[in-house]
Design brief:
The complex is a heterodimer of chains A (about 300) and B (about 675). Chain A is an alpha/beta fold. Chain A is built from eleven helices and 14 strands. Classes of the chains: A alpha/beta (about 300), B alpha+beta (about 675).
């Protein structure tokens, strides 16, 4: 339902996006991971119809988003740096959104006040950065969006608020078939929120993964053998990484745990330890596979 | 309602009003102070005389410039406020993520702008009208006055607002938008000035006067700034013209907004192509300014070229620095880009100096010419082009020949060199061709002596005289009276002729004298005074208006249209006629009134003043012989000049020994007996 094909975008001399392909299913939460300057914000702003595609196309529900008010009515964007009119209170802003979005839901706005627990007559400029972000999400949810595009939405929130926001988003996805694209430079932030993750590096998507598949599929195996290692061990093994520490071998391999246990038991190991990888580790190895160093991409 | 949904957004409009409602309120108050309150404050004065004077400067934009300042500042501020969101990333992202088309945003904000600028004007117009009705001021200003004032204010507000908005669609910083707006308001006129002045120094025969003098209409069209500065009223066609401009700017602005790359916000200029225009434009303007400067201070071509090089380099890199917001701008890329500019300029200059277009040598052949204006004084030509049009083939040939000589003398001149001194002068040629085209040339500060024979011959022609001496064209029946005036140091003479037969005789004599006089005679220093032909008042003329050009008759205490004729001493027939009628003594100083004269020589202009104070001292000459007095009277001029050395100072005395008049003899007019005395 969100389809990006071969999207490019130049800023004067800099190629910000070099042929991005992306696909997001309805009702899913897609995490866009990338370091600063990778092109995340550019991609998101193009997805939100703020920037015009230089080439390639962005389609949401099969339609082009740029200069498409009907579609933009249901596609909400919250930038990393949120703008509010000077001197406006939360209620003023709500009134503005109400006059702009035909799908504005006043009851929902009122109901969400209990969740966010902010004084609606307070000037937004005077709120903290985290609170301002909550207001944005609050207003955004009140327009009953179909798609939410969030640029670093959890940045600057404390852990309690972070969890609260995450829950709200997940709830909305579950209840209203909301689709969310959320960017971050921090994998851990996305780990328990997203069902898909794409890594954007230097203007291209270098990796796109289904989280469930990933967690299930990749394991870290620590093994040692009585006899020297037989070459046959590599047969039928989708190996991502290997390392030898004394007599202990460390393998990272794809495959279900059950199959991997069977595979290694055949070679009579002295020690066999099979563990699921943390997301971070998975990316480290996967990206190593693609040829990039993870440290550059995911800042911890 | 597709139009409503596509071009205007209620939410945006409502929000603009909510955010900026204070703006029209302040503007209304400001206007109230400038207009209705001014009238209210002057209410007491209205009871006194001179009806119009008391509202002077209120509804006609002449009072102190407050209203001009409003027009130049208020719309710019409003446009900056309304479109400020375009100039910062945060707000731009927010507003463009809303489900609203760019056209709709543009139209909605613009509408609010028009509303905020118009409602206060209408409100104040209304108040002014009420003030008029309550205080019964109908004879001081009318509803039409109010409506015209409102229309001009509203339209000019819209123009300035729309220019600011238009500029805003290409800039990415509010400061740049503001600065660029004022540059734009002035730019076309400024560029015209610069180009014209530079062409004058580069092209022989090009005069700035043809492009700039008496061209206020053009300049006002080119620069709204200039129009507003000198604003007092405006015609309907101008107002409509400005409304068309507003529409063009609106459509243009909308188009550029649509094309705008929001990712370039925070860049001074968001369109790459326009930033080239900006750089090269700044370089060009700097270059021409330097060229003008070095021409003014009298530098030669080398200095001008030096100025071009330095200034364009400076201008280009200043512009580049603004665009890149950086000082580190000198690199290969920018240097290449500047070289392209310089190369183009060099080509252009080479083209001009080789006269590729044939501008300097172009001279229409006599069978092409319908007529030609030819003058040594630009202003005399410009006032009445048709009046000074030579059509006589003989004169056209003479003018053409002179022009050909001027073109031929080009090679003898150094670049844009001007001569100074007695022979220095200007010549202007305006050829009206049979095909309806015009060729204009002006040569300023050239040495006129090679062309003097031609000029004298032209100026001696009847055609020339008919152009310059209205007495030759006067309708005798229109002359009511003729006055002679002759002012001397201590005695003034005036004579009035009322008799119609005498008027006719006298006028004919004057006409004959002028026709028979040659070039030099009509520029002679020996003048009795002035003869004025006072014309009968035209019945339909508005007598309330006193024009400076009219002649005041102290006898009747009335103002007359008049034709003035300089009364040269060489007009012997006039003297004879006056003598015959017995009027001579009433008209001018005669020998019988002079008992004796004193003459002395001074070496300098300053010394002449001292000598006059002590006329009898030194080796001065006293003359009592009546014949010699008569000769002296006929030859003296009533002043002295710097050029003469020695200066023959002369003073005339009456019987009582009081000085009646004084003056000097020009070198060529010193009577023989005086010359002999002093040469001994």
């Amino acid at each position: 339902m969100i389809e990006v094909k071969n999207l490019t975008k130049d800023f004067d001399d800099i190629k910000a996006l070099k042929g991005v392909d992306l696909s997001v299913k309805e009702g899913s939460i897609y995490g866009l991971l990338g370091s600063n300057g990778a092109g995340k914000t550019t991609l998101l702003k193009t997805l939100a119809g703020i920037y015009k595609e230089d080439s390639g196309e962005v389609r949401i529900f099969g339609e082009r988003i740029f200069e498409n008010p009907t579609l933009k009515n249901r596609v909400l964007f919250i930038p990393d740096n949120i703008y509010y009119f000077a001197g406006y209170t939360i209620n003023d802003m709500a009134e503005f959104y109400k006059s702009i979005y035909s799908t504005w839901n006043q009851e929902r706005y009122m109901a969400l006040q209990k969740v966010f627990n902010l004084d609606t007559n307070k000037k937004i400029i005077k709120l903290s950065k985290g609170m301002q972000r909550q207001v944005a999400i609050w207003l955004c949810l009140s327009t009953m969006p179909k798609v939410m595009i969030l640029d670093e939405p959890l940045d600057g929130l404390d852990s309690v608020m972070r969890q609260k926001v995450k829950n709200l988003l997940i709830q909305d996805v579950a209840n209203h078939q909301l689709t969310i694209i959320v960017s971050s430079h921090n994998l851990r932030e996305l780990e328990d929120l997203c069902d898909h993750i794409g890594i954007l590096h230097e203007g291209s998507i270098v990796l796109e993964k289904d989280m469930d598949d990933m967690k299930r599929d990749i394991h870290k195996i620590q093994v040692s053998f009585k006899n020297p290692l037989s070459k046959e061990i590599y047969d039928n093994l989708s190996l991502l990484y290997k390392e030898q520490r004394g007599s202990v071998y460390i393998f990272i391999a794809r495959g279900e745990r059950k199959d991997l246990v069977n595979h290694f038991t055949e070679f009579e190991p002295l020690l066999l330890d099979i563990l699921p990888l943390t997301l971070e580790e998975i990316f480290t190895y996967e990206m190593g596979d693609v040829g990039y160093a993870i440290e550059n991409i995911i800042i911890k | 309602m597709p139009l409503k949904t596509s071009l205007l957004n209620k939410g945006i409009i409502k929000n603009d009003i909510k955010r900026l409602y204070w703006f029209p309120i302040l503007y209304t108050i400001a206007l109230f102070f400038a207009v209705p309150l001014q009238i209210i404050l002057r209410l007491n004065q209205f009871k006194e005389t001179v009806p119009y004077k008391h509202i002077y400067g209120i509804l006609d934009f002449t009072g102190g410039g407050v209203q001009h300042a409003f027009i130049l500042i208020v719309p710019v501020l409003l446009a900056l406020l309304l479109f400020n969101y375009l100039q910062t990333k945060k707000s731009s992202d927010m507003l463009h993520s809303l489900p609203i088309k760019r056209n709709t945003l543009f139209t909605s904000h613009t509408l609010v702008g028009f509303l905020f600028l118009t409602v206060p004007v209408i409100a104040n117009g209304f108040i002014t009208w009420i003030v008029q009705i309550i205080n019964n001021l109908h004879s001081f200003y009318s509803l039409e006055d109010i409506l015209l004032w409102a229309a001009i204010t509203i339209v000019m507000n819209m123009v300035i607002f729309m220019i600011t908005v238009f500029v805003g669609t290409v800039t990415g910083l509010t400061l740049v938008q503001g600065v660029l707006t004022y540059i734009m308001l002035f730019l076309p006129m400024g560029l015209l000035f610069l180009v014209v002045y530079n062409m004058q120094s580069l092209m022989y025969g090009f005069s700035w006067r043809f492009s700039l003098v008496y061209q206020d209409d053009l300049l006002m069209i080119l620069s709204p700034f200039y129009r507003i500065i000198g604003l007092y009223s405006m015609e309907a066609k101008n107002l409509i013209g400005y409304l068309v401009l507003v529409l063009v700017l609106f459509i243009g602005g909308m188009y550029l907004y649509q094309k705008r790359r929001l990712e370039n916000n925070m860049q001074p200029i968001v369109f790459k192509n326009l930033s080239y225009l900006f750089k090269y434009g700044v370089a060009f303007s700097f270059m021409l300014t330097a060229g003008m400067y070095f021409q003014e201070v009298g530098g030669g071509i080398a200095w001008i070229l030096f100025g071009y090089a330095i200034a364009s380099f400076l201008g280009y890199f200043i512009a580049e620095g603004i665009l890149q917001k950086s000082f580190r701008i000198i690199n290969r890329k920018t240097l290449t880009s500047y070289s392209i500019y310089m190369g183009t300029v060099i080509l252009l200059l080479v083209g001009i100096s080789l006269d590729f277009t044939g501008y300097e040598k172009r001279l229409p052949s006599s069978d092409e010419i319908k007529g030609v204006c030819f003058a040594t004084n630009y202003y005399s030509y410009r006032h009445q082009e048709d009046k000074y049009l030579y059509k006589d083939p003989k004169n056209i040939q003479l003018i053409s020949n002179a022009h050909k000589e001027i073109i031929g003398n080009r090679k003898n001149m150094k670049f844009s060199e001007k001569v100074y001194g007695e022979n220095s002068g200007n010549l202007y040629f305006v050829y009206q061709l049979k095909n309806g085209k015009k060729i204009t040339r002006g040569y300023e500060g050239i040495d006129l002596s090679p062309y003097m024979d031609n000029i004298k011959e032209i100026n001696s022609s009847i055609e020339y005289k008919k152009m310059h001496y209205d007495v030759l064209n006067v309708d005798l029946s229109k002359i009511e009276k003729i006055t002679f005036e002759s002012h001397h140091d201590n005695i003034s003479k005036d004579l009035v002729i009322y008799d119609s037969d005498e008027i006719e005789e006298l006028t004919k004599l004057l006409q004959d004298e002028i026709i028979s006089s040659n070039y030099d005679e009509l520029r002679d220093s020996r003048v009795w005074g002035v003869v004025d032909l006072l014309l009968k008042p035209e019945p339909d003329e508005n007598t309330n208006i006193i024009e400076a050009t009219k002649k005041y008759d102290k006898y009747t205490k009335e103002f007359y249209e008049s034709i003035a004729v300089t009364w040269y001493k060489s007009f012997d027939s006039i003297d004879e006629w006056l003598m015959e009628k017995g009027y001579l003594e009433e008209a001018r100083l005669v020998k019988d009134e002079v008992e004796f004269i004193m003459v002395n020589v001074a070496d300098s202009y300053e010394e002449a003043d001292k000598i006059l104070a002590s006329m009898g001292e030194g080796r001065s000459l006293k003359i009592t012989d009546k014949e010699k007095i008569e000769i002296s009277l006929k030859n003296y001029a009533n002043h002295w000049r710097y050029e003469d050395s020695p200066i023959y100072v002369v003073a005339f005395y009456n019987e009582a020994g009081d000085r009646i008049d004084y003056g000097s003899f020009y070198q060529q007019h010193v009577p023989q007996f005086i010359k002999e005395y002093f040469e001994d």
